[in-house]
Amino acid sequence: PPLSQAPTLPASWYHSREQYEVERARIFWTQWHCVGASCQLKEPREYLTESIAGWPIVVQRARDEAALSKESPSTTLRAFHNVCRHRAGPIALPQEVGQLDKDQAYTGKSSINGFRCRYHGWTYAESGELKGTPHFADPFPEGTPSSQIKAAEAKAASCDACMPTALPDFDKSDFPLYPIEVREELGLIWVRLHCDRALDMGMPVPDLLGDSPRVPEWEEAVGELRGALGEMDLGEFEFYSTEVHDLKCNWKTYVDNYSEGYHIFVCHPELDDSMTAQKDYRVEVTESSRCMKHVVPLKEDADAQSTGLWAFLFPNLAINVYGEGLSIERMMPVTPTSMRIKYTYMFKPGTTQQVIADSIGGSATLTEEDREIAEQVQRNLESGIYVASRYSPRHENGTYAFAKAVWENTQY
After folding, report:
1. For residues 236 and 348, what is the distance between their CA atoms, to the nearest angstrom?
2. Which tens digit of pLDDT belongs to each residue from 313-368?
3. What is the pLDDT of residues 256-312, one digit of tens each?
4. What's CA 229's distance to the chain center, in Å?
5. Per-residue CA distances from 388 to 8, 102, 293, 300, 354 (Å)
6. What count of other Cβ atoms lies within 10 Å of the Cβ of residue 281?
7. How confident is the model over 208-212, as a mean pLDDT?
8. What's the confidence (pLDDT) of residue 352?
9. Contact 358, 344 (CB under 8 A)
10. What single-letter DSSP state applies at residue 176?
11. Contact present, 115 and 100 (Cβ < 8 Å)
């Protein structure tokens, strides 16, 4: 129904395990997700790890195969599920950003980057191909001369792929890492778990995905954010830090809150003081309901931390630009009743430490104010007293658009 007639999402959708699993499968598996800024991975072999609704992934800045022979090789991104095909060990440690040490990367004859499982040491080329399975089985039949065994082991010490296997029906080509889609645009790194190449490899998919899942193409999924950002060039900003906040609420509870300015005069007193009038605050929503931008009516003497641009892209990404800095804000589900906010802070070169401290401090204040009310709302949503309500046509068109997108992407 239209905004003026639409009910809010039912309270059960904010704590139901069944609904949560539907959203994992039909939203977080199929949509494009920002996992960081391009400038976080500047050099070959640098990588970042992330968890998307419980699916661990890794993205690496690898060398372009077509440029391997050049003196200054170009780079490209590769992304995989961070799950070894042996017994599910991590192929990269779950840290925010790292660089593979020499003893952690597979370096074959072509010096291709790669990963070594942190459990049993299986090694993978940067293409995801399984290269080495050290000590997987005794490859030498009884009676093999010790000199032959030592020679083979010495060779394998520098090239795991050189060690033969004693399992005649074991083929390394049957056990590559499962890839995921990855792109760079707007100065950001994007991934999508739904990947045709991985499906062709036999990768399992979520049970609740359905026979005809809605998998948006790149332009449909992300194109409207380009318009919302306008002339903003994220490449002007440099990575500074990442901060994480854990909240005891459903991810939609927090996104609902982000999608409207109706609560500002009650929950954010400092921000409210910088505005001219609550009635002038508005949220501009695109036709698809996937993207929105906040238009904040500020007083002429408002400080720099209150001025800027706030844009949201379905399902859970916000780009907050203010003064000399910006934050990439990701609102990530953890369980049906808990979530994590991950901020990536970036600033223009030359920004003073005082401005950086003020910006991050102001962000922390707003987040704490939002956390307090979101967790209280979550407890009430679980109480059984509240079922559903109606939207304010003036102030909650953004929240309605988000709910509409959730509904359209799960109810098919």
Report:
1. 6
2. 999 999 998 878 999 999 999 999 999 999 999 999 999 999 999 999 989 999 99
3. 999 998 888 888 887 777 766 666 788 999 999 999 998 876 666 655 555 678 899
4. 19
5. 6, 56, 26, 39, 45
6. 21
7. 89
8. 95
9. no
10. P
11. yes
* pTM of the full structure: 0.86
Phi, psi (rounded to 5 degrees) for 21: -70, -35
State mean pLDDT over 24-28. Answer: 97
Tokens representing 230?
A: 């306008």
Rounded-to-integer distance, Cα 194 and Cα 33, Å: 11
From the number of C-beta atoms within 10 Å of its C-beta (0-12, 13-18, 19+), residue 366 rates as middle
CA distance 204 to 202: 6
CA 122 to chain CA centroid, nearest Å:
26
How many helices and strands (H and E) does the chain possess?
A: 9, 17
Rounded CA-CA distance 173/354 in Å is 54
Task: Enumerate long-range contacts of 391-394, CB under 8 Å, 24 or more apart.
Answer: 391/3, 391/6, 391/8, 392/262, 393/3, 393/4, 394/279
pLDDT the model gives residue 126? 86
Length of the chain: 412
Q: Tell me the CB-side half-sphere exposure of residue 181, using CA atoms within 13 A.
A: 18
pLDDT at site 393:
93
Q: With contact defined as beta carbons under 8 Å apart, do 370 and 267 qualify?
A: yes
Q: Give dist(CA 391, CA 247) in Å, integer.
A: 24
Q: Which residue has the tokens 């704590």?
A: 15
Return all residues near 34 (Cβ < 8 A) that are at least 6 apart: 188, 189, 190, 313, 317, 328, 330
Q: Which residue has the tokens 């982000």?
A: 258
Here the tokens at position 58 are 């890794």
For range 363-392, the mean pLDDT: 96
